[in-house]
Amino acid sequence: MNFCSSISKQEMSALPVEIFHGDIIVVDNHNAVRKAVAYLSAFDCVGFDTETRPNFTKHQHHKVALIQLSTSDRCYLFRLNKLRGIPKRLEDFLIHGNTVKVGLSLLDDFHNIRKSMDFNPDNFIDLQKVVPSYGIQEASLQKIYAILFGKKISKRMRLSNWETDVLSDPQKQYAAIDAWACLQIYKQLNQTNELL
Fold first, then answer.
1. Which of the chain's ends, N or C, has fewer CB atoms near its CB within 10 Å?
2. pLDDT in tens, 141-194
3. What is the distance, to the nearest Å, from the Cα of residue 114 to the centroid of all Cα atoms in its chain?
4. Whose CA is closest to 87, among 44, 27, 40?
5. Distance between alpha carbon 139 and the CA centroid of its chain, in Å?
6. Helices 30-40 and 88-95 meet at what angle, rounded to 10?
7. Left (φ > 0), alpha (ψ -120 to 50) or beta: where does 85 sit?
């Protein structure tokens, strides 16, 4: 089954905005990391994304501030700037285990993570490599999601400060929906395969 191959900015602007209605859990201490990884490890597949504080000057570089991992109804926001890097339990989840991590444009995420540590990810699926086989020619999360679900994902918070002391509700919603949307896209494509 092939979907619409592309969507214009004008078509997207007319779509309703998607909202993540699940639980958003901020993880900023090692006890919370343990609980989060234990929960996520029970799932076959989760959505994945990262956020980094934007660079506004030429030679400015920031480390990944946030890793988001989402099930269909719960998203964990791992605040790496508060955890002082990627905790061992989280690292083990990302590079080992049976849970598939689904993201988009993963090379960028991996490159940014490697600025902080050696990172050899395993069991990841990049949606940009999957969607062309369904006739979708778009590469952005916003456009792929709009084609599949008829809703748009707001990008208003993308350039906000992800190292701020307390994440705002709009930041948390934005971060959660990016990881969650990757999972929803993957599940929708898998469901399409099952119907063929």
1. C
2. 999 999 999 999 988 777 789 999 999 999 999 999 999 999 999 999 988 765
3. 17
4. 27
5. 14
6. 20
7. left
Residue 54 structure tokens: 């934007």
Kindly report the number of other CB atoms within 10 A of residue 161's CB atom: 14
Give how far Cα 96 sits from Cα of 92, 101, 107, Å: 5, 11, 18
What sections of the chain are H helices per DSSP? 9-13, 30-40, 80-83, 88-95, 106-113, 127-130, 141-149, 169-195
Contacts of 130 (CB under 8 A, 6+ apart): 186, 189
Tell me: the pLDDT tens digits for 86-137? Answer: 999 999 999 887 899 999 999 989 988 888 778 888 899 999 999 999 999 9
DSSP state of 119: -
Q: Are 64 and 117 in contact (CB under 8 A)?
A: no
Radius of gyration (Cα) for the chain, nearest Å? 16
Helices 141-149 and 169-195 cross at an angle (nearest 10°) of: 60
pLDDT of residue 1: 54
Residue 112 tokens read as: 């940014």
